[in-house]
Amino acid sequence: MSAGIMGPDVCDFSSLKPSTNRRLFWFIKKANVSINNGPSYEHLMVMKALQQCNWEGLPLKDVTEFQAFEKKLLSDPQTFDAVVLLVERCGGDTVAEAVTRAWDRITTKECRSACNWCGIKKKGVKKHKISGSKIVDAVHKGVRKTLPDAKDSQLEKETKKRFVRAPEKLKPAKASSSQTSHVGDEEDSD
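The line above is the sequence of DUF4806 domain-containing protein; the predicted structure tokens follow.
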């Protein structure tokens, strides 16, 4: 073989047999098919839906954005499918990990701390109800695409846990920001 540019015959994997190395064979076969055929029609349609959605708005920062995005999901099935795909791409090996990754991608801690499953008042503040929400449906459907054996009870439990723990996670951030302002005040007094 010459030291020049390799010709197309170097990339011809048609003579490769599965018995040589199964993993290598299937990897090369899949790679060769995707290179030759390009992206699937389904993949292109989902990517188009993702582009049409306002993805600059994610993660949702507060309840107002949550409600507006929920209205968008109710009125636009392509946006719903795009969120399902987004959640599916977040991945996760367990239901807990997949749900956590999904909610972290879609909402901020501040948004989650202003919501709860039943919309019950906590410490005198009315929370936004997420039970039956179209966003919750999209997250659960996306997790099920990643983990098809996920049960409703598991998805609900992990979603509740993610929203219940959000206010706890905000407290350290608020405490550290107030400490840094006090440190700055001490420096100014000298």
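Note on the example: Residues 8-37 form one domain. The longest helix spans residues 166-189.
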